[in-house]
Design goal:
This protein is of the alpha+beta class. It has one domain: Glutaredoxin, CATH 3.40.30. Helix content is 43%, strand content 17%. The chain has a two-stranded antiparallel ribbon with strand order 1-2. A hairpin with a 2-residue loop joins strand 1 and strand 2. It is globular, with a radius of gyration of 12 Å.
Length: 72
C-alpha cells in the first residue's frame, strides 16, 4: 500500500486506496481478494493485480507493463 500511495502523491493520474475486504465483501469477491494486501492496477480496460507485499522494483515493473499494454 505504501508504494501505491507514494505513486499517487507524485502523479495525479494514479490513485491509491485502501479498502477493508471484510467491510466490502462484494468488492472483495469482484476482485478475487483472497490475501492482503492485494494491489490492483487498472489502466483503461486492462487490469493487473498481485497479492502480498512485493519489492518496489516489481511494483514499478507492474505499473510500466500496465501503461505499455494500454498504449498498444
Amino acid at each position: 500500500m505504501r508504494m501505491a500511495h507514494m505513486a499517487a502523491m507524485v502523479n495525479p493520474r494514479i490513485r491509491g486506496a485502501m479498502i477493508d475486504a471484510a467491510e466490502f465483501p462484494d468488492y472483495s469477491r469482484e476482485h478475487s481478494v483472497y490475501a492482503v494486501p492485494k494491489t490492483i492496477i487498472k489502466v483503461g480496460d486492462h487490469v493487473h493485480s498481485f497479492e502480498g507485499r512485493v519489492p518496489e522494483s516489481m511494483f514499478i515493473s507492474a505499473l510500466r507493463q500496465a501503461v505499455q499494454h494500454h498504449q498498444h
